[in-house]
Description:
Blueprint: E1 6-9, H1 19-36, H2 47-54, H3 59-70, H4 76-97, H5 104-114, E2 118-123, H6 127-136, E3 147-149, H7 164-173, E4 180-184, H8 187-195, E5 199-203, H9 209-221, E6 226-228, H10 234-243
Parallel strand pairs: 1-2, 1-4, 2-3, 4-5, 5-6
Helix pairs in contact: 1-2, 1-4, 4-6
Amino acid sequence: MGKISTILFDCDNTLVLSEELAFEGCADLINEIAAAKNVPLQEPFTGDKLITEFVGQNFRGMMVSLQQRYKFDMTPEELDDYVRREEDVVIAKLKEKLVPCVGVEPVLESLATSKKYHLAVVSSSALRRVKASIEKVGQDKYFGDDVFSAATSLPKPTSKPDPAIYLHAMKTLGKTADECVAVEDSKSGTLSGTRAGIKVIGYVGPYSEQEKAHMEKVLTETGAVVIMQHWSEFDSIMEKIESGSL
């Protein structure tokens, strides 16, 4: 086990409580697309329904899944246009209402002060949205330019669970997988980090009490080495990972 030098944070519902706000805006747009494409939905999509089905995927990833499921087509130009519109809708919501995840601020502050680790953000969401999110809550000072987006930072846009964005981030930062620890809250994010060879801390803080037990199981099954209920547990978890007991 190499010495841990780098912590890679997912953004949505790991650093900031954005998923609910984002999926609200996203649902409106998907219902509009369904109407335009004559897709027979049993009932309109809601933010909650989208979260259940697509948490951890970006909008482009959702669109690919929905085209397969409902057998409709979209030109690359149409898809790009909708991706841009979704970004605008979601960013407007985030700028209005976004707050950080409970307990994450003291952890980031302490990590920044100690300078023990290199800190970076690795997200499926578009770079403009990730930057708007961390700027809104004042977290941008912890990461500088080390913010990576599967939707924007790669030659070919993708989404977690594809490990491409983690591999790209490590290559850019000059780090190996055994030097890194990732923090993820979703199945697709945990798979992405694990497939890149990184130890993943599965964070379930933002889930409702009913969903927590289920998500603990999902994240453990997809490779998380430990489950974190609250950010106050982060230091002790890192000690265990560093000592090799996790």
